[in-house]
């Protein structure tokens, strides 16, 4: 789901204004939800009784609560599987007092996180270069369990059928929670687990009569559609002749169609409580999932530190347990430094399109046809035209033309708009396409033509209301026709599939970009996957005007966002895990990154939404290629020790890292953020290369998972102004051994800014590509 960066700014300004008007004294008295993080549970994780754990936490709380407020002595969530902690209601002063305890790492306000298929998998297969008829390995994948933390699940979807799937793995420890509209029979051998949590809005008033022991209200059933869509994209069973009212027809399936699904309903349409997300991650770890998929993230404007971020905290401890965590990178692009979920132990995903669009043609009265993009099921035809008007020309009385041209609420004159097709522009980012469509609908317009260069390739679902979106070039021609014709007319045709679109993939306009805001020494995002116009399972729609005339609700839907890209990678990771069950999360991550494709279906470098070549800050290592990743040749193993060094170099103290790791790990005496670049990561990012002829040398170690006797030779792709020397230039293996190499970067007169390139090791069969980004300062 795309969230406007401007909306976040407005929320921030409102908060600041509120504080200015009402003062800050109330903040110290008002209670709100806080997360109390206490580090690793160590080898004792989950073995203490929940009662004993709760008693200890309550004793800790009672030490800081005033005697008159003992009725607030309760806990919302307890974390006790891979990590320790709890969430509770505190005042700002109480949170500060609690953070002073030695056993506590961080106390932070419970943040509100936002929610960030029939052709996509076939497209990835073709783009891999292995051919559309290349067979998938004959592995079932039934032993791999994917945990989907999202808005729940619609169990009746055919994507969650367990036909042909064997018994549930005996190691599974999860449950199928019953609710108001969900029974144990809704789970099966495919959907093996379902949990839900109390959906308390962050910062809302808490009912003190409802303690943590009270049964949650609701059920795991998805009321939004987001969770159902992501779950089926990752591991949905094959469903033939799937479509969204005829659009995107084909066989819908997940990336690992035999893998099991465990659904954790931690979000609603309004967002997600960070404390609840952390509880869901803790439960998923305890239940025994292999992969966790989270299409959720913090605001890119207010990013929290790594140990104040619930997803980063949960993902660290999941990695400790050998569980891979894949997260969406956010929808705040195309601005730089907007990528979220950027901790190195998270697999961070950007979004791109596939070679399919949903086209709605605009037919003008002069016969000219412009192929716009949208999802609409209108009943208009080419044989009948309707009056056409520019929004700025039909403004309501006393309304500026600039507002009416953007179809801002209340800006259109209903008398002048009724029965007309209205042309709106998008020079005001404050108003979404959905709002503009509703404004025109309320003003009794016959339809809307949107001129929007940035979002023209991101299809908007307008239901039965005629809607089409064109870019600036076509938009100019439509406006020129209006201005040169006495009685301009047009019609908008219902959407049809347009396949084999070129170029593809293209990085989506909304996809958040690197470098990382918290640190530029790890290259983020990591990878790109399809996230535009993705067809997958959906909850039944009931909104008036969303269903074509005479049709029943569709079992599938079309959504866009990095939310949709994330489960593609989760499915690919589960697929690889099914073939290589002994591989660690970092080995799977490395395999997907070093085999990623960097060219489009025209054989040229992948481009971004501005038609320029996409950089690694747009795509990470490139577009996933699951089949190629099965046999990567060499992998970079990033171990827990590497992540602990990351925390050292980032600036955390020894005692904090002891608590986080659960062991006596000690930081090096000389720690600095620049040293993060030396961690054994599958990509390279140098945040500062200073001065002419200055040199920065880093080391990497690869593990051979390919042929026993092999020799790899290096090839460097780098800008002329950036010197790159790799030593040695040849790596020889005689079995599953490890080998290290050094890479030296030096400035040969490069201009300021990031320079990108790659280092590729090849043995004639495998090509192991390592992307780098070097910032010349």
UniProtKB/TrEMBL annotation:
The keyword Ion transport does not apply. Residues 141-610 form the Peptidase S8/S53 domain. Residues 207-230 are annotated as: Disordered. SUPFAM superfamilies: Subtilisin-like (SSF52743). Residues 1-26 form the signal peptide. Keywords: Hydrolase, Protease, Serine protease, Signal. The active site is at residues 150, 226, 563. The keyword Signal applies. One of its GO terms (biological process) is proteolysis. It holds the Pfam family fn3_6. It comes from the Eukaryota. One of its GO terms (molecular function) is serine-type endopeptidase activity. InterPro entries: Peptidase_S8/S53_dom, Peptidase_S8/S53_dom_sf, Peptidase_S8_Ser-AS, Peptidase_S8_subtilisin-rel, Peptidases_S8_3, S8pro/Inhibitor_I9, S8pro/Inhibitor_I9_sf, SBT. Residues 678-774 form the Subtilisin-like protease fibronectin type-III domain. Residues 33-116 form the Inhibitor I9 domain. Belongs to the peptidase S8 family. This is CO(2)-response secreted protease.
């Amino acid at each position: 789901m795309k969230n406007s960066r401007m909306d976040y700014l407005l929320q921030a300004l409102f908060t600041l204004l509120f504080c200015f008007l009402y003062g800050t004294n109330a903040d110290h008295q008002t209670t709100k939800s806080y997360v109390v993080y206490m580090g690793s549970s160590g080898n004792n994780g989950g073995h203490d009784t929940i009662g004993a754990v709760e008693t200890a936490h309550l004793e800790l709380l009672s030490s800081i609560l005033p005697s008159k407020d003992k009725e607030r002595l309760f806990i919302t969530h307890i974390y006790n599987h891979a990590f320790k902690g709890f969430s509770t209601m505190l005042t700002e002063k109480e949170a500060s007092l609690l953070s002073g305890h030695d056993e506590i790492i961080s106390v932070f306000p419970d943040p509100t996180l936002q929610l960030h298929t029939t052709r996509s998998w076939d497209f990835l297969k073709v783009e891999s270069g292995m051919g559309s008829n290349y067979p998938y390995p004959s592995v079932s994948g039934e032993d791999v369990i994917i945990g989907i933390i999202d808005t729940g699940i619609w169990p009746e979807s055919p994507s969650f059928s367990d036909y042909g799937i064997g018994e549930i793995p005996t190691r599974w420890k999860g449950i199928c929670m019953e609710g108001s509209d969900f029974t144990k029979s809704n789970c099966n051998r495919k959907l093996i687990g379902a949990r839900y949590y109390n959906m308390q809005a962050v910062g809302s008033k808490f009912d003190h009569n409802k303690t943590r022991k009270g049964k949650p209200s609701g059920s795991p059933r998805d009321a939004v559609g987001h969770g159902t869509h992501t779950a089926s994209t990752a591991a949905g069973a094959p469903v033939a002749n799937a479509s969204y009212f005829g659009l995107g027809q084909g066989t819908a399936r997940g990336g690992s169609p035999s893998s099991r699904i465990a659904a954790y309903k931690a979000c609603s349409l309004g967002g997600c409580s960070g404390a609840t997300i952390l509880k869901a991650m803790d439960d998923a770890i305890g239940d025994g999932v292999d992969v966790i998929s989270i299409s959720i993230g913090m605001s890119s404007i207010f990013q929290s530190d790594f140990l104040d971020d619930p997803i980063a905290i949960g993902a660290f401890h999941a990695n400790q347990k050998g569980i891979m965590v894949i997260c969406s990178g956010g929808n705040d692009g195309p601005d730089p430094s907007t990528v979220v979920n950027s901790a190195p132990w998270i697999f961070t995903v950007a979004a791109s399109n596939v070679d399919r669009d949903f086209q709605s043609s605009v037919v003008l009265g002069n016969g000219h046809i412009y192929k716009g993009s949208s999802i609409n099921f209108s009943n208009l035809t080419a044989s009948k035209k309707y009056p056409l008007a520019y929004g700025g020309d039909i403004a309501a009385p006393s309304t500026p033309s600039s507002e009416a041209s953007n179809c801002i609420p209340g800006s259109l004159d209903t008398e002048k708009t009724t029965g007309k097709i209205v042309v709106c522009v998008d020079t005001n980012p404050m108003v979404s396409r959905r709002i503009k469509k509703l404004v025109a609908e309320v003003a009794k317009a016959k339809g809307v033509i949107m001129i929007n260069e940035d979002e023209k390739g991101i299809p908007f679902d307008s239901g039965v209301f005629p809607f089409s979106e064109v870019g600036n070039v076509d938009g100019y021609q439509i406006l020129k026709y209006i201005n040169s014709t006495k009685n301009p007319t047009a019609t908008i045709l219902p959407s049809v599939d347009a396949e084999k679109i070129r170029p593809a993939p293209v990085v989506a306009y909304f996809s958040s970009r690197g470098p990382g805001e918290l640190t530029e020494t790890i290259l983020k995002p990591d990878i790109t996957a399809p996230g535009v116009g993705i067809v997958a399972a959906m909850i039944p729609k009931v909104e008036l005007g969303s269903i074509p005339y005479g049709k029943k609700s569709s079992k599938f839907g079309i959504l866009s966002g990095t939310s949709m890209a994330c489960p593609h990678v989760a499915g690919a990771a589960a697929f690889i895990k099914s073939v290589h069950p002994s591989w660690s999360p970092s080995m799977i991550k490395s395999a997907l990154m070093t085999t990623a494709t960097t060219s489009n279906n025209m054989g040229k470098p992948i481009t971004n939404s501005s038609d320029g070549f996409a950089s690694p800050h747009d795509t990470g290592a490139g577009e996933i290629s699951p089949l190629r990743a099965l046999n990567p040749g060499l992998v970079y193993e990033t171990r827990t020790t590497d992540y602990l060094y990351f925390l050292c170099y980032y600036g955390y103290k020894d005692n904090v890292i002891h608590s986080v790791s659960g062991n006596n790990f000690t930081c090096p005496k000389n720690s600095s953020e620049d040293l993060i670049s030396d961690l054994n990561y599958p990509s390279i990012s140098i945040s500062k290369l200073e001065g002419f002829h200055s040199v920065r040398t880093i080391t990497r170690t690869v593990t051979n998972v390919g042929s026993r006797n092999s020799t790899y030779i290096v090839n460097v792709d780098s800008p002329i102004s950036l010197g790159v020397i790799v030593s040695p230039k040849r790596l020889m293996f005689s079995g599953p051994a490890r080998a290290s190499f050094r890479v030296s970067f030096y400035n040969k007169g490069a201009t300021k800014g990031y320079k990108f390139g790659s280092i590729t090791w090849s043995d004639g069969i495998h090509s192991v590509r390592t992307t780098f980004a070097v910032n010349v300062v």
